[in-house]
Amino acid sequence: MSTRPIVSIIAAVAENGVIGAAGAMPWRLSTDMKRFKRLTMGRPVVMGRKTFDSIGKRLAGRRTIVVTRQHQIGVDGVETAESLPAALTLAGRNAAEGEVFVAGGGEIYADAIGAADRLYITFVAARPRGDVHFPPIDRKSWKEISSESFPAGERDSAPTRFVVFERTGDSRLD
Ligand SMILES: NC(=O)c1ccc[n+]([C@@H]2O[C@H](COP(=O)([O-])OP(=O)(O)OC[C@H]3O[C@@H](n4cnc5c(N)ncnc54)[C@H](OP(=O)(O)O)[C@@H]3O)[C@@H](O)[C@H]2O)c1
Question: Which of 11, 53, 79, 126 yields a CA-CA distance of 20 to 30 A from 26?
């Protein structure tokens, strides 16, 4: 029997669907950054090249796999894949815990949402201007399995609601 890791999308999404502006995130959410680190630690993380550029280095303690049509990224310890499926294959090959995280950005989320099993979404109570959006979450394909609200902490620019969705039935595309 073949096994495959769970494919999980992790994203912070504003009320208007915005996730990015001018190559960065249009908010400051320290609480959410800590949660991202906690959830992804030890797991492979797949991201698009533009998101990687905004980070600029490998994520500590996590295999960092960048989807790009370029052959090399030229950053030590960073793996590259020529497509999202190739990145997921690469990630699954050595996935210690059987869960792979897809961490953006817009192009990669749009590609990945049909193949994902789980969504970890931080809904940000703000409507910032931006140029990159999260794809629509079709409630027929996704059920909310947990939801927790957080007031804005000292180092957060907005309150958030953290929701975990799991795919309903057999609606995965691959
Ligand atoms: N709010 C959040 O949770 C969150 C998370 C992550 C990122 N972001 C934001 O999202 C924005 C970046 O998103 P983006 O949509 O502009 O870019 P992106 O998805 O991060 O990266 C796009 C790049 O990925 C590569 N790529 C995409 N599809 C591919 C395919 N099918 N085959 C091969 N390579 C492919 C290409 O790289 P090459 O050009 O090198 O070929 C493409 O230019 C930033 O503003 C960032 O801050 C927000």
Answer: 79
Confidence (pTM) = 0.95
**Cα(49) to centroid(ligand 1), Å:** 5
pLDDT tens per residue across span 73-101: 888 899 999 999 999 999 987 655 589 99
- Show me where the domains of the chain are located: 6-167
What is the distance of C-alpha 26 from the center of its chain? Answer: 16
Contact 134, 128 (CB under 8 A): no
So what CATH class is 6-167? alpha beta
Ligand 1 binding pocket, CB closer than 6 Å: 11-12, 19-20, 23-25, 48-51, 54, 67-70, 82-84, 103-108, 111, 132
